[in-house]
Fold this protein.
Amino acid sequence: MTDHQWRAFVSQGTRTGKLSTVRADGSPHIAPIWFLIDGDDVVFNTGKDTVKGRNLARDGRVALCVDDDQPPFAFVVLQGRAELSEDIDQLQHWAARIGARYMGEDRAEEFGRRNGVPGELLVRVRIEKVLAYSGVSD
């Protein structure tokens, strides 16, 4: 996929990402997330005390897989390092934007208020590497 194609693919509809983080013992942890692409960053939020929140605070390395599980199959894997913020204004803004993508614009502010609160982290992952394949079964 070209740069334009993979960006369109990961931003299409309500595809979730499968986020892989590194546990303290070096083993992987994976969890589904809602996310947005903002320029060259992946943006999402998570609880500070969740497994992924604790993993990200200790080791910012991540991989995010977004896939289409219907023939002819496609996937994109984004790798990078996470930067964390607890800025409430930014948390509310991005939580609302993410909520709009997954739940509809009419519920955006509801999700901004729900997820843009103390105890949540705003996560920005600078995309360092992209693996993008379409037509896997062709």
About this structure: Helices lie at 3-11, 51-58, 88-103, 108-115.
